[in-house]
Amino acid sequence: MRTILVIDDNPAVGTALDLLFGLRDIRTLVAGSPEEGLEVLRREAVGLVIQDMNFSADTTSGQEGVELFRAIRGRHPDLPIVLLTAWTSLETAVDLVRAGAADYLAKPWDDQKLLATAENLLELSEATHEVRRARAEFRRRRQVLEERYDLRGLVFAAPETLRVVELACQVARADVPVLITGPNGAGKERIAEIVQANSSVREGPFVTVNCGALPSELIEAELFGAEPGAYTGAASKAREGRFEMADGGTLFLDEIGNLPLAGQAKLLRVLESGQFERLGSSRTRQVKVRVISATNADLAAMIREGRFREDLYYRLNVIELRLPPLAERREDVLPLARHFLDGAAELDEDAARALAAHAWPGNVRELKNALQRAALLCRDGTISAGDLGLPVVRGSTPRPPPAPEPDRAAIEAALAEAHGNVSHAAAALGLSRQALYRRMEKMGIGNRESGMA
Fold first, then answer.
1. pLDDT tens-digit profile of 324-343?
2. Are 319 and 294 in contact (CB under 8 A)?
3. Whole-Å CA distances, 165 to 171, 192, 207, 340
4. Residue 453 — pLDDT band, cuts 50, 70, 90?
5. 3-128 has which CATH code?
6. 191, 305 in Cβ contact below 8 A?
7. 125-151 pLDDT per residue, tens
8. pLDDT one-digit tens code per residue, 379-427
9. How far apart are the first and last CA of the chain?
């Protein structure tokens, strides 16, 4: 439940605010002295503090309030604090706002303004708590991964990347094909390496082939091998294909959407039976290969256009790992940038902000190239936004735009999907449980379904 702590030596203030906030279903705790207030904060979870500035009789300096503010701020640096002032000078209150107080209100206060301020600050406090909780959960989940799996030195800090890595590790030991989707340069091969490194065939070969980098007439020979003279320009001796090279290990097929239809039919057969023939040969060969494929293409659209076999798609897509573009995992940008620099240069504040603000249409590959170029152009080992060729972004490091506010249809759909469980629906919407309850109340959405919690 949303909770406010009022610290004021006048009991009438505590009573009045208790009644006022009770109208909004806000729990109010009241402390009559700084010492009592700090004790309440020690044992209770509080979302907002409203504190007086003077506690001793005939005292108007506000010094007691300043000391209380500093004590709370020292122990709870993210807790919002509203100052109630009567005799304190405006200058003192303004100084505390500059030091981190959320707001100050004069006694007697305006009920509507105080309610609005409290609602906004409680929402902010709740969001801050959720961010801290999410960061702690991220660190815990990442530590579990690092202890249990070989992550191949992958550098990441975004929750979106964590989810992909978790799934990659989870399915690694299953003997099924994996399809990794995502834009060019996003790092699909690194995810394939993680799957291979944690698979049952991790001691076997890891063979890669880029289907988009070979002429269509050579892809089949590259994959399945060829006998002498099997095609124009073929070598005078037999050529071993990538499937044979990967026997007992993993074959990574990048840009699988570029595989011609004839090669797709052969690939489907290998996936189903492990059997194939070299070009120009009638001898059937048998291999045991774990296939991981990747593409930036829309395979579903290619199926509709007749350019990709539907049966092959479903055979490859037993498990799909979607790696988002770098623009959707901005927390990865600065850790990756520092990893690529590897101490060769440092980023100044403008460069860091410019990196975080840029959309990176070329993804990780573009980021790496930009940093390599900037490290060569910078002076005194410090990279500026100009060295990166990016516009300067003033102010704090930008964050991704917030998720759109869910409307009534989205909330009702989430509740239906969660079978009425409010906690599960809130998680799906990216809200806290209390935040979802407030939106349900405003929209008149009842918790009629059984099992709502």
1. 999 999 999 999 999 999 98
2. no
3. 10, 10, 21, 20
4. very low
5. 3.40.50.2300
6. no
7. 888 888 888 888 999 999 999 999 999
8. 889 999 999 988 777 654 444 444 456 777 778 877 877 777 776 677 6
9. 14
Which residues, including other chains, have CB under 8 Å from residue 335's CB and lie 6 or more apart? 155, 156, 157
The dihedral over CA atoms of 425, 430, 436, 440, expressed in degrees to the nearest 10, equals -70
For the structural domain made of 327-388, what CATH number should be given? 1.10.8.60
Contact 198, 149 (CB under 8 A): yes
What tokens appear for 237 in the block?
Answer: 């001796």
- DSSP three-state, residue 269: helix
Q: Where are the alpha helices (DSSP H) in 76-158?
A: 90-98, 111-148
242, 251 contact by CB (below 8 A): yes
Q: Show the tokens assigned to 128.
A: 């801050």
Where do we find the tokens 């010094």? 63
Task: Let me know: does 291 contact 316? Beta carbons within 8 Å.
Answer: yes
Domain at 152-322: CATH architecture: 3-Layer(aba) Sandwich (3.40)
SS3 assignment, position 29: strand
